[in-house]
Amino acid sequence: MFPRLGRAVTQISKLRSFSSNASPFFSRCAYATVAQADDAPSQNDFPSKSPVNLDKLFWSKPCSLALPKDSPLRIDEPDYQGVRRFILKMLLFYSKQSTSIRGANVIYKRIIAQVDTPAIYDVFNLEKTFKITYSLLVLHMWLVLRRLKQEGKEGVDLGQYVYEIYNHNVEVRVSKAGVNLLLLTWMKELERIFFGNVVAYDTALLPDAKPNDLQIKLWRNIFSDDGTTTPDGTELKAAKA
Asked: What is the crossing angle of helices 96-115 and 130-149, to 10°?
């Protein structure tokens, strides 16, 4: 048990390097209102010299992005009729909140399906460790939450449900990694890292952002392993890809 705990703590402790972009405290209940973060150099531990095998992206034939009807990821909203529908309606199964929670679960399952797919680790030659998987999870969460915000208040509310499901899933992942002691402390640290990265990515897309700012932020959080703050030409290609 103790060796496993030691390995897990080492893996998660390296994630603290992400927090250079994080502000001191963020509320779990307000992901949509994140303060600006500083841009201090980060100390990461990722394979910056790993080759990127872009050719592997084109091995599979083109296909529709729509889920097939028999996909385990496809979840259709049940459409009960008669007495069953009446009872479920009385139990608030079709309420706005219940419908949003079910929708948020569907969205998060799609996020997890993307993060856990072997292809992304294979193409970018990434080792599937907790810290790299978490950095990719944060990146995908940012993409989804940013898109949902464009839908106005309803999108932000739906994003809040997605974020709460994400928090529960991260807690389960940390526990499975062997960290049962000081779990709350690690969750607060991961929360700080999450919001720090979200602010960094959002800032990199502002009109006054520096050239390649987003690629540099991605490189720091996912690929960098030697503590440098700026990737060279080869390393920048990996982040652009």
From this structure: 140
